[in-house]
Design brief:
alpha/beta, TIM Barrel, two-stranded antiparallel ribbon, 39% helix
Length: 307
């Protein structure tokens, strides 16, 4: 697994090997090591087949594990079923988040329990902006109550490439304040730093214990990335950021390289820098543990065995 690091202002790379032998041997390698979790990847469930997933499989070899978010590519039940089929083949590497539209779907405890127990999906992703519902809609609030009860983290995917009919009003992270206040134990992730509403995102993660932000970046947008990271550092919320690639928009390796290379770009300037250790902590943050997802991946059973 290729990981990027900076030493003496120069970009270097090293390889963290992953054993393909039985887990008992891998336990020795895992103990005391950091993990890299990509909290934001997608597959296109509308064209789900071996060809459609091969690039995803290749991309996630760079990380220890990843979250695969369902996309609004068709009827939610069909998309979730296809995602479940894919995840079930790669349980050692992947965790799936189902798509739900609270204002339209069956949000009963029974149905949400089925998402977790029958489909094996460990969280939920909401597209408020794309699907056209207010994050604090009355039915959405009932959904959050059930999600909190079941321990289902909720990923708000309201950033990225917008379509003409997307409702940007519903993309604003401050709208989640009511949700976080009403359901303080609900694990919430604001996708892609809530771009273009980054300041709202920083306020939310600073205010609420269980609200996190996904630092998915565009590696080519270095200036945007720099400003987001510096703003988070100045607000002292770097510990609330989770690493993501946004695949297929980008790959984890290039995102890691961009993040760890930010300070190198500033060597001959007077611009503020961010300590490399703080950036590494984001990349090596155990997102799954923070979100309460530990039961499927071998790494976590190894950690428990070694404690």
């Amino acid at each position: 697994m290729k990981i990027f690091t900076l030493d003496g202002g120069k970009m270097q790379s090293y390889y963290k090997t992953q054993s393909k032998r039985p887990l008992s041997k891998a336990a020795k390698k895992f103990k005391g090591e950091k993990v890299i979790i990509d909290c934001h990847t997608h597959i296109n469930c509308a064209v789900y087949d071996d060809t459609g997933t091969s690039e995803h499989l290749e991309a996630v070899q760079t990380v220890d594990a990843c979250i695969v978010l369902a996309t609004p590519d068709g009827p939610g039940d069909q998309v979730n079923k296809k995602l479940s089929e894919y995840i079930s083949k790669h349980k050692e590497k992947m965790v799936g988040f189902a798509i739900v539209e609270p204002d339209k779907d069956n949000i009963s405890i029974k149905n949400l329990t089925a998402i977790k127990e029958k489909l094996g999906l460990e969280g939920v992703v909401l597209y408020c902006c794309r699907c056209g519902f207010h994050p604090a809609h009355s039915k959405a609030m009932r959904f959050y109550e059930s999600a909190q009860q079941l321990g289902l983290p909720v990923f708000f995917h309201n950033s990225g490439t917008f379509r003409p009919d997307d409702n940007l009003d519903y993309a604003q992270p401050y709208l989640l304040d009511e949700v976080a206040r009403t359901f303080p134990e609900l694990k919430i992730v604001i996708g892609t730093m809530g771009v273009p509403f980054v300041e709202q995102t920083l306020s939310m993660v600073a205010k609420h214990k269980n609200v996190f932000a996904d630092l998915t970046i565009k590696p080519g947008n270095v200036w945007q990335t720099y400003n987001i990271v510096v703003a988070a550092h100045e607000r002292s919320v770097m510990n609330k950021l989770l690493f993501g690639s946004g695949f297929p928009s980008a790959r984890a390796g290039e995102c890691i390289e961009t993040l760890l290379g930010l300070n190198m770009l500033l060597a001959d300037t007077n611009l503020p820098t961010v300590p490399r250790a703080n950036i590494r902590n984001i990349i090596e943050r155990d997102t799954l543990e923070l979100l309460g997802i530990t039961k499927h991946l071998p790494q976590y059973s190894l950690k428990e065995d070694n404690q």
